[in-house]
């Protein structure tokens, strides 16, 4: 699984035939919706999309029948059971079981029905809790996982390994991409279980609307985090479908870190909250640093385009126009 | 997942009702056949057994229908796609995919149909390649796997994690046992892909039958290995079903190491080959040492009963009476 070599570069047909059938599993989620936007923008005319009610990906026979009938040429697996720390801790069986079922069904049926290429998406939580920072791809399975999301992580690791195994045994083009922390339209802004970026956006927005004097944020603001706008991820997905055919999974990050303090200050500005930003330093900070090493993807020619500032403005605009409380 | 505590001890009903339905998945394999022998010996009268032709465990709907119809009270998962190094390297998709399907189907259906207790079996290859020796349970996921069996290993690790996740979310009694190298009746004696112990047995037997002068064995004979007779494993399975209800998987080993040289000399004696045993020291030895730490299981009261010598005698007797080339 060592160094990058040119045999991993696909001179693929992905962008050549925009009428090819592309199945985007999970098209209603943060990631899937962004991929559909991107493909539509690029002129793809034959996107195969199924809601959960139309196609339950945990049902093996239904997935097999769907693939036998549709035979999509390309498959992007953005469907998963996702959630925050509390959900993972409370429903571990769902987080490992449902994700294993979805992945195993889709990967196997795609192979058996002539899909030319499949991209499997995971997340940075596949890596060991104490991975070196920035986190390179080969940190995978070198140490214990973060216990709060080990159920989801094990499922995603199994998905990466399934793609590799199918590539080796069948010489089939399956690749995996592992994005960093994502944000953007269609994110989860729920007051209790959203991630830090959308949570901050919602809190500053509500403080502005309510005329509050201040917003209090936990910790010192010093931890470093990486964020990627989901439209950049969609762009990377298209790039990988066109250009990458390797065994190893690829990290998809922005490579740019910000402190939580910088994030909060940018967010305050993007939302237009004019009160005070106050730090409750009696509360915990969390992991000091989390940054993916995306140099492999950069070395084959992809880097993100959306700055954090522009991305926050774009996301807040979406929030104002679309988000129903 | 720390220290052993008494809440992990089940005062179970397993041995109390020998008419309870016990589904032994994989009853025709080395492990499953031994478990069936043991349960039959103990007086169990209601063993639910299905051959692959009768029930394909990779088919979700078939497994669901089977469980809905039979509703076994106890389930022992000894069914798996297994094989040696060559098979794992050539068919990695089968080794990860089939095992994930079997496990996910059986564990989920067992839970949903009222099974009281499930035992999931794996193997020592779940541990990191460079795990400390003897290998304790908490070595799991602390380092990279042995590449030649990582596909099977990932599937088995996912199975352990599924059992843990179902226990946490549903308070359901699922446990996992990880045996060391097993041998005994119904083992694989194939000349090319069997493990070292049955391979040696077959080679000494054929040398005896053919009147050969010598048997040449690769390496120096110095590597240390641990072996457990499969009837001891079956005994441990019953013990765990009766006595163990913990979150952590348990190692099931003999705790006794022998050098390959000691194994070969014992085997020569048991088989009755009177020619020379010669070591080809130009050939590789393999891993210097592989021993599981089974002290946790020993601390709750189980140790093996079958010495290596007695076990080899028993196995050779079976070989002479049953093995068809």
Automatic annotation (TrEMBL), chain A:
<comment type="pathway">
    <text>Nucleotide-sugar biosynthesis; GDP-L-fucose biosynthesis via de novo pathway; GDP-L-fucose from GDP-alpha-D-mannose: step 2/2.</text>
</comment>
<dbReference type="InterPro" id="IPR001509">
    <property type="entry name" value="Epimerase_deHydtase"/>
</dbReference>
<dbReference type="InterPro" id="IPR036291">
    <property type="entry name" value="NAD(P)-bd_dom_sf"/>
</dbReference>
<dbReference type="InterPro" id="IPR028614">
    <property type="entry name" value="GDP_fucose/colitose_synth"/>
</dbReference>
<dbReference type="Pfam" id="PF01370">
    <property type="entry name" value="Epimerase"/>
</dbReference>
<keyword id="KW-0521">NADP</keyword>
<keyword id="KW-0413">Isomerase</keyword>
<keyword id="KW-0560">Oxidoreductase</keyword>
<dbReference type="GO" id="GO:0050577">
    <property type="term" value="F:GDP-L-fucose synthase activity"/>
</dbReference>
<protein>
    <recommendedName>
        <fullName>GDP-L-fucose synthase</fullName>
        <ecNumber>1.1.1.271</ecNumber>
    </recommendedName>
</protein>
<comment type="similarity">
    <text>Belongs to the NAD(P)-dependent epimerase/dehydratase family. Fucose synthase subfamily.</text>
</comment>
<feature type="domain" description="NAD-dependent epimerase/dehydratase">
    <location>
        <begin position="22"/>
        <end position="253"/>
    </location>
</feature>
Automatic annotation (TrEMBL), chain B:
<keyword id="KW-0560">Oxidoreductase</keyword>
<dbReference type="InterPro" id="IPR036291">
    <property type="entry name" value="NAD(P)-bd_dom_sf"/>
</dbReference>
<dbReference type="InterPro" id="IPR001509">
    <property type="entry name" value="Epimerase_deHydtase"/>
</dbReference>
<dbReference type="GO" id="GO:0050577">
    <property type="term" value="F:GDP-L-fucose synthase activity"/>
</dbReference>
<dbReference type="InterPro" id="IPR028614">
    <property type="entry name" value="GDP_fucose/colitose_synth"/>
</dbReference>
<protein>
    <recommendedName>
        <fullName>GDP-L-fucose synthase</fullName>
        <ecNumber>1.1.1.271</ecNumber>
    </recommendedName>
</protein>
<comment type="pathway">
    <text>Nucleotide-sugar biosynthesis; GDP-L-fucose biosynthesis via de novo pathway; GDP-L-fucose from GDP-alpha-D-mannose: step 2/2.</text>
</comment>
<dbReference type="Pfam" id="PF01370">
    <property type="entry name" value="Epimerase"/>
</dbReference>
<keyword id="KW-0521">NADP</keyword>
<keyword id="KW-0413">Isomerase</keyword>
<comment type="similarity">
    <text>Belongs to the NAD(P)-dependent epimerase/dehydratase family. Fucose synthase subfamily.</text>
</comment>
<feature type="domain" description="NAD-dependent epimerase/dehydratase">
    <location>
        <begin position="22"/>
        <end position="253"/>
    </location>
</feature>
